[in-house]
Design the sequence.
């Protein structure tokens, strides 16, 4: 891939968020279930800036990794943090949709997720180690979010709403579905592959970035539909 295009794609975790952010700051939505999505975009932007700065610091600033603490040399712990934030905020989003299908389950799962998160990083994984990218955490997050998405589609089909594509929630769920389906295998095997085939695995992350751009476009579409 052309070097310039590769650099643009590498930074897509930042600039892709400006696609929905432009619509967020240019108007005000009164739809309650969009609130956690707006919060996600802002929080994800802050975390993603830190992710890209750490990833590019050697290239941009010429800082040797060995001169810094181990956790500064790796942005993996930030992916764990972003995964947790994404899961909790989109769980909130699905709860606010107020769909009756497994409504109690949707409220309990985030509490179980937090408990498992704490147990995992106390006893099984080191949150700040160089290899702290938790494929286990991100894969579970993506799988549960996909389950939420499937419940959403089942509810919409049962309601037989012909105009469901005009609903802002439809575009959010569709974008999220695409993102998690593409990335479950990437999250699950990324570190294992990286240790064996570094160059190949870095290339795989381009697929994640492309799916993230698509995800952000769908988020922007949802904010656009909310103003009609």
Sequence:
């Amino acid at each position: 891939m052309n070097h310039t295009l590769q650099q643009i794609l590498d930074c897509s975790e930042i600039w892709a968020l400006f696609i929905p952010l432009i619509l967020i700051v240019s108007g005000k939505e009164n739809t309650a279930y969009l609130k956690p999505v707006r919060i996600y975009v802002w929080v994800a932007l802050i975390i993603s800036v830190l992710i890209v700065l750490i990833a590019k610091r050697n290239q941009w600033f010429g800082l040797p990794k060995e001169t810094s603490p181990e956790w500064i040399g790796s942005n993996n712990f930030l992916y764990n943090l972003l995964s947790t934030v994404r899961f909790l905020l989109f769980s909130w989003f699905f709860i606010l949709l107020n769909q009756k299908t497994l409504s109690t389950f949707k409220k309990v799962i985030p509490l179980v997720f937090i408990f498992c998160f704490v147990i995992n990083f106390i006893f099984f994984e080191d949150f700040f180690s160089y290899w702290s990218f938790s494929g286990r955490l991100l894969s579970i997050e993506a799988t549960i979010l996909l389950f939420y998405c499937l419940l959403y589609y089942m509810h919409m089909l049962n309601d037989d709403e012909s105009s469901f594509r005009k609903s802002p929630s439809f575009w959010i769920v569709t974008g999220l579905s695409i993102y998690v389906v593409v990335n479950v295998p990437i999250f699950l095997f990324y570190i294992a592959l990286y240790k064996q085939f570094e160059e190949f695995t870095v290339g795989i992350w381009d697929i994640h970035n492309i799916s993230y751009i698509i995800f952000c476009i769908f988020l922007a579409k949802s904010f656009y539909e909310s103003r009609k």
Notes: The CA atoms of residues 39 and 89 lie 8 Å apart. The chain has a mean pLDDT of 84. The first helix runs from residue 3 to 10. The radius of gyration is 18 Å.
